[in-house]
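Changelog-linked ticket: magnesium ion example.
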Amino acid sequence: MLDLWYKNAVIYCLDVETFMDSNGDGVGDFQGLTDRLDHIEAMGCTAVWLLPFYPSPNRDNGYDVTDFYGIDPRVGSFGNFVAFTHAARDRGLRVIVDLVANHTSIDHPWFQEARLDEESPYRDWYVWSKEKPENIHEGTVFPGVQDTTWTYDEVAGAWYMHRFYKHQADLNIANPAVKAEIEKVMGFWLQLGVSGFRIDAVPFLIEYRGLPKDRQPKDDPHGYLTELRDFLAWRKAEAVMLAEANILMEQVEEYFGAEGDRMHLIFNFMLNQHLYLALTRGDAEPIRRVMARTPAIPPKSQWASFLRNHDELDLGRLSDEERAECFAAFGPEPHMQAYERGIRRRLAPMLGGNARRLKLAYSLMFALPGTPVFWYGEEIGMGDDLSLPERNSVRTPMQWSDETNGGFSTAPPDTLVRPVVSEGAFGYRRVNVAAQRDLPGSLMEDLQRLVRVRRACPEVGWGTCTVLPSDETSVLALRYDWEGDSLIILHNLSNRETETTLPVDDLHRLRPLFGSREDRDMRDARGPIALDGYGYQWLRARGERR
Ligand code: MG
């Protein structure tokens, strides 16, 4: 069997500047993160994904980079970075870093040269138009906040394209020098000890949009993903690419590659959105619907599963009616919503802090085909701060303890990089790591157990998944088969108790993997299985086929 580490990984995502501040300047840093690796290890995670930590004017949380070969001095030095990757490796944790190759900050020296001098080689690193382009209001990523995708630059005397905010100019991927530079950036961080990249905005990265027709390359831009994969494979065999690509099922093959020779992992945005619709309705049908439409992917390819991340919960792939249902259930007030498509809240407040429902949601996420990804703070049920603009609501500092600033920093509270959630049911005095550590029945303890069980079930990462027909529409019944073992995972999305009988004639006896010692006695696979409201069961038949 190939040792593909990402097939059975559990990824923990964090932003260095909001995780742990070691020097009391109010900004989280690499030293603080290194000091708190024990927590990530204790959660049972096997990889850490870092949001951008590069030099940046920070107009978009570091996604506006001014130097791809640098480290924001507020979060540390190269010495701190290498000490961190070393300490992580020591604990069996691989490190993935964010690669923002679609655009740079307009403060980046490349853009500054490009705008000043039409003859500069950097001019063609960006996408320009002398004439005002048509449809400058089309294709914005942040509707309601961002008006256009082109902005006139007085210095350059031309319009530049920007899929995102106007302070983020799109790089011109049709220029071979830009492609070579992106590979150089990847090679640089691989050399410093990282095991891969979360690639930002992949569909926008590989488009030739904005270039005049006669300057658009004739090749399929998806081919660039194969080039990147080849580059990584030669530089570092274990390195992976995890794609942010909110794509349709028809596009899956273009992004994984027919031979699995493009992206290693892709976030399953489609399943994520339908999971929320299913939670809203207490009905598993939306999940079954998407899984039925999901094409099989090559053996070395992998989905990445998640509940929430550092962005808004994007519900743009649902119908208007379905999205309205989710808004009504989880983000009814206009200030809870963002960009006409999403909800800018964390999961725990969306579910009203209901512990059983939260545990159900995480178990469900861990049971879906793919590699689970946590957003820091989810393990303790952190809340959000809707008084902060846009997506910053879900990017407040980690809540470590009930001490000042939630134990995140010793700086005066009004000087923190972002305020700690201090009021209400999700304030740091109630919700913090110290309070939940070793507390039986805490969310953190249950998620630690969930990670342990999931890691011991390689069937989910490696096996074949079948959605079993269920006599109760609220119950999602999944079956995995791999190397002679079978796993049955049941989730009851409604709050009503129910019983379900499994259509598994070839299986004999099942062993529950959760619950008390008595709960885990072997049971007949043909007998009815009871599920509490919001209950779940993971059951294994080990080499027990009839
Ligand atoms: Mg600091």
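Closing comment: Example verified and attached. The two ends are 26 Å apart (CA to CA). Residues 176-191 form the longest helix (16 residues).
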